[in-house]
Amino acid sequence: MVRPFRSSVFPESLLAIRVIPAVPTKKFSLLTFFIVVALFCLMAFPAVIRAAADPKEEAEILNAAESVFLSMAKRDFPALWRGLTADTQRAIVRNTHKAVVKAGLTFSEEQVRADFEKGGGTALDYWGGYLSRFDPKTILEESRWTFGEFKKDRAEILLRYQKSDHDAHLKMFREGGLWKVGLDETFSIRQ
């Protein structure tokens, strides 16, 4: 026969003592209950407390992003270049300059930048290669756009391609009073 475990350290009389303190019997008022629920919701759902952009600013952000992808589709590379953040522009110029030097050509980074600004031969080659791997119509026509996180000079647009289960978070930045697309900040593998 198996005997129940009995501890010699705790006599049976001590085992019967309640270790859990009694729940206070003070009743909460209805107002206190709603305040506690509201605080819980605010902590549990940070998107609810984000500093929302006004509708005009949301429209500016969405229009700036859309214009970049429309410029890609129309192959209007100077307009596309103007819609990109300074960090994205620097990354493109730096990477293109490295490729140009490796190919044996003698262009300075400033010459590469000027070529991108006017949509010259180097820009045509770069964007032609980019667009051979990426079709902007997938963003413009086959994706759902929703406004994501917003801060004073930063915003995110959530892009959901119709055949995807996940959103891409397109990062937008306000520079010089204008909203710009952060292609490098969004899609770079260095992030």
Give a quick set of tags describing it.
about 190 residues, Nuclear Transport Factor 2, Chain: A, 4-stranded antiparallel β-sheet, 9 helices, about 50% helix, elongated
Structure description:
This protein has 191 residues and is of the alpha+beta class. The chain has a domain at 55-187: Nuclear Transport Factor 2, Chain: A. 49% of the residues lie in helices and 15% in strands. It contains nine helices and four strands. The protein has helices at residues 12-15, 30-44, 55-74, 77-82, 86-102, 109-118, 121-133, 137-140, 183-187; strands at 143-151, 154-161, 168-175, 178-181. A four-stranded antiparallel β-sheet has the order 1-2-3-4. A hairpin with a 2-residue loop joins strand 1 (143-151) and strand 2. Helix 5 (86-102) crosses helix 6 (109-118) and helix 6 crosses helix 7 (121-133). The model is unreliable at 47-51 (pLDDT under 50).
